[in-house]
Amino acid sequence: MKRFRKIAIIDTVKITEVAKRAIQDYSNELVIYPESDAKDETETYKRIGRADAILGNWQSTINASILKHTPNLKYIGICGTSLANIDLEAVKKQNIVLKNVTDYGDEGVAEYIFAQLLNLFRGFGKYKWRDEVSELNSKTIGIVGLGATGQQVARVALGFKMKVLYYSKSRKIEWEGKGVQYSPIGNLFKKSDIVSLHVLKNTKIIGKDELEKIGNGKVITDTCLGNIYKDINAVRLWLGKENNFLIRDYQPEIKEKLGDLERFIYTDDVIAGLTAEARERLSTKVVDNIKAYLEKN
After folding, report:
1. Which of 136, 239, 261, 285 is the S-S candidate for 101 at Cβ 3.0 to 4.6 Å?
2. Per-residue pLDDT tens for 155-164?
3. Which residues form the D-isomer specific 2-hydroxyacid dehydrogenase NAD-binding domain (predicted)?
């Protein structure tokens, strides 16, 4: 079996013990898993050392200044989807193969969203959307970004007999055939009872103008990576109005800015897409990526 000389783990990775044992089989040297993320570039390239393969997470940073210290590096595996912190040109220039993992946490994200919506609409916990208990049935949900996660949300919403609108950079004819309606984003904001956001990391999509279109008595769900708000003060003002709610999974930066507001529904230490099953899917794909690379090289 082909192996790397050394696989270095540059940041914390949420993979299973079974996957860790499999990864060790692909490394001649002992694979060491750090207990915390690298604090700066120096620590990152020191962790890499003379490794010819590395694994990181969706927050891992790899740039030209790091790569100049890692002449042996041939393979970068990201245990997640986002490549926002990877200098793709620098990686390509050094002929390094870069692999990430997609479509592993979508089911968990959709379940999280609808668990929170059911709690809110039925008044099961601290929050209740309206004075009377409400159903999701017949409500309109507008999905911004109909990628893998947005599609999973649409699938569940249709099961609740909701009206489903979507906005995406490209039309999804297959989903329109299932009853999901395309809408320009401004119209989607105006027509939706619930706006569910599924855009790329740190895509600034919500500000004063968008919130004015969304209006009052509405719910926004945000499980995106990073901060997607153009104007956080506008979000604070919007949340101060009656029956407006924002649902957000673990994102300390957003909690710091909105956590004091009554209708900001936030779950500490709960990442929407991180479930036992998602870890299994992620772990399998991380190992499969390594195996596929070694079989071809």
Report:
1. 285
2. 999 999 999 9
3. 130-229
